[in-house]
Amino acid sequence: MGAFVISKRFNDEYKFVFTSRKGKVIFTSLSYELKFECEEEIEKFKGGIESAKFLKFKSSGGKYFFKLVFNDNHFATSRKYTTELLLQKGIKEIVTYGSRSEILDFSVDDFVFED
């Protein structure tokens, strides 16, 4: 089963990624100022995943990707895929496992560093 992984960006904002069962990133969210905003957005998404829309694109370099639209807002952008079939598999992973995936928090706030 996949997982939502929360982490901190270099600019101190938060983001989350959805990873596949094999640990590969499928999509990356937009930035959020506070960690609880990530948690809330993930829970909303998990509860309403059937209303998500996947807009498919092909980059100028020939790679495939999608933008995830949820509640009429741009929610996340996928990684680049070499084929349209792999892109479709990434979408299927989200639809199949997204609503029951766990949330992992790897933001720096939770780690204690000792000298």
General description of the model:
The structure is a single chain. It is globular, with a radius of gyration of 14 Å. It contains two helices and seven strands. It is 23% helix and 35% strand. It is α+β, with helices and mostly antiparallel strands. The longest helix is centred in the last third of the chain and has 14 residues, at 84-97. The protein has a seven-stranded mixed sheet with strand order 4-5-6-3-2-1-7. The termini are far apart. The model has no long low-confidence stretch (mean pLDDT 91). It comes from Flavobacterium shii. InterPro entries: YegP-like_sf. This is DUF1508 domain-containing protein.
Descriptive labels:
single chain, 115 residues, alpha+beta, seven-stranded mixed sheet, 7 strands, globular, YegP-like_sf, DUF1508 domain-containing protein
**Structural class by SSE content:** alpha+beta
Q: State the separation between the terminal residues, measured CA to CA.
A: 37 Å
Order of helix and strand elements from N to C terminus: EEEHEEEHE
How confident is the prediction overall: mean pLDDT? Answer: 91
Largest sheet: 7 strands, mixed
Q: Give the strand order, joined by hyphens, for the main sheet.
A: 4-5-6-3-2-1-7
Number of strands: 7
Q: For the CA atoms, what is the radius of gyration?
A: 14 Å
Query: Which regions have little confidence, pLDDT < 50, spanning 5+ residues?
Result: none
Query: What is the helix content?
Result: 10-25%
Q: What oligomerization state is this entry in? A: single chain
Strand content: 25-35%
By DSSP (H or I, 4+ residues per run), the number of helices equals: 2
Shape: globular
